[in-house]
Amino acid sequence: MASHTTPTGTEATDEELRGLVAQLTLEEKLSLVVGEDFWSLPEIPRIGLRKLRVSDGPVGVRGVTWDERDTSLLFPSPTALAAAWDPEVTRRAGFIMGAQTRDKDIHVLLAPTVNLHRSPLGGRHFECYSEDPLLTSRIATAFIEGVQSAGVGATIKHFVGNETEDDRMSYDSRIDERSLREVYLAPFEEAVRTGRVWLVMSAYNQVNGETMTENSRLVNGVLKDEWGFDGVVVSDWMAVRSTEAAAAGGTDVAMPGPTEVWGEPLLAAVREGRVAEAVIDDRVERVLRLAARVGVLGDRTPATTTTPDDAVATLRAIAARAMVLLGNDGTLPLDTSALSRVALIGPNALRLSAQGGGSAHVNPSHVVSIPEGLRAALGAGVELTLTEGAFTHRALADLSLDMATDPDDGEAGLRAEFLDADGNVLGSEHRLGSSLMFWPDNIPAGATVIRLRVNITPTITGTNILDVRGAGRFEVTIDGATRTIDMTAPEGTDAIEAIMRPEATRIEIEATAGTPVAVSVDFTQGSRFFMAALGLGWANPRLSEDAELDAAVEAARAADVAVVVVGTTDDIESEGFDRKDLALPGRSDELVRRVAAANPRTVVVVNAGSPVLMPWRDEVAAVVWAWLPGQEGGASLGDVLTGVVEPGGRLPTTYPAAAADVPVYSTERVDGGHDYAVRSSNIGYRAWALGEAAPAYPFGHGLGYTTWEYEGVAVKGDASGLTVEIAVANTGDRAGREVAQVYLETADGTLMGRQEPIRLVGFAAIDAPSGAKVTATVEIDARTLARWDERGAAWVTTPGTYRLRVGRSLGDLRLDADVTL
User: Catalytic residues, which ones?
Assistant: First the structure.
């Protein structure tokens, strides 16, 4: 196994850094505060500075291309990592991701995302950790420590108030100071003060009227001066939209480059005295400090960490530990010795959503499908039948390499070509996947057409279906017949939305099994490309929706157990747009209900990163929340369903029974923004506590396969810090995992002049064998006990008697203890 050491000797002194800055010309200084291209900062050999490369996270390091031939480990979604409620799990994940980042010769990982689950409709909900600032802080800080122990810079994002995706480039998050401090800034502050994070990414949006790339009060005043952040503030991509204001507002590096506002205009602004050269010097000093930390400055060398041999096994274990058993009548875990047939049903059973959409996307070498994982877990003695049951995916599955052939070389895959306006081929590639993404640096200069050519050999005779997707104009030729399809994105469409959720057009093809169909597609986006995404999908002849659902019911009726897998897709949960509702797509709910009526032993697996409504939850034998589980998802689910591993997860956010019950639901702008003060600092379970509706599943909920008794609690300490010791016993017949959670209440539900509902102040994950009694110790520091005093602009703890409440979840609190602070 590879070493897991913290890099030493890489820190540079302020004196050394300033000496290097003094050697640079103004032009060289300015080259270091804007990207050289989409993913890097330039080298300056004469001061020993080598090229510094960055790459997207947080479910894996993609590298500097979006290319299925350049594979990466695909981790469980951040919501899944948070569901483990265990910083050590996340620290290990961070280290492995950091090590692979090093293997790819990347120096900065653009992760973690710590914006909060303010509304369950938030498009990047799956990419963030939790609705609670404390849980988010602890999980994120451990991840950062893991990444940076591999000698890679972690980037906490998006600073700040970036909880929705619709109109994210322009909306204003209006947040009162106490809420800002206690909730939305809290994860960033802990990452800086405790995690010593090396980069912070500023958000697209405004906060209280100032865009975050220009928000001097928060970036210079709070982040850099008050918290002492000595790293780099990098803009979100294309978020810098001004010259002087962004330079003065605290932005250190504008990405990507070259950019119109920070090239020659910034040089002119410095020369004319509108931006002080000392401001640029500070920015460059920060960049050089980062370069030293990641080993690309002077005689420093990058960390020698490499991806550990147990990385894949670790991803499998993490995904299983994160899965949450929401309900169970005893059907789980499955006893494979008592089974002869299992019906595996559902759209997500056949097409696992291993990850969400957006810049977090990576290309794994292989994803363990649910049929693959369940067949291995059940063993050869159990028959596994497969039925889709409902058609819920907007786009068809990508072309299988078993049926797609490159016309030029005859190899499995397809041919991608770049043509200029005269039809000259500027570049040609053999590709293995049929969903293609091209960054500006990956498109040859002068290209106006991207052409895909492939021979598709159907496996079933009849009406097969081809889909073409992308934001642009297509000339599609099938066996010599050409048609035009215009799917140009409307004016004003978010570029990321157009790329991540492109339009799709389906074409029916009467085909014969074994006879190739020649397909050629010419894709254009006007006179030039900036970024481009296009794809081809395929489906064999299908039953009607009614017939498919009937077939699923019959399969369930003939089986000992039915496992129904429903969920979201990467064009429902994605960067670039918010969800429109919480319903499962298509006829998913009908499918679950009809299968459950046919077989009382129906286990529902929900494959989603964010909450969905589950109106059938009391009609089925068990519900497992599987998240977006990453590349080992099918294997992890097999482990959980058969009891090889206990589903050890706990919900990091509240799951509603009805959309109308959600305290903060809509993500639509009102008067140009989002008024956070409507709920003050109370979002998530704290907002639920102020209402009358009960959620479907409360914050912290999760059952497992054993039972636990909470036998006693002892508290020591005062306002300077508390130690809470919780006596817990595993009273079940198997080993298990528990998460002891500690909440704090005031005597009357108010504090400092406003409502103060219950809040999480600590937690501890424990593992214990059957019959064992253990003590879970939770340390609560002074800062966690304090609240922000707006008048005094300081953290204070109001003296008085408080109540600590201890239990398995917010809905299952077992012990109380009064404490005087």
Answer: 236
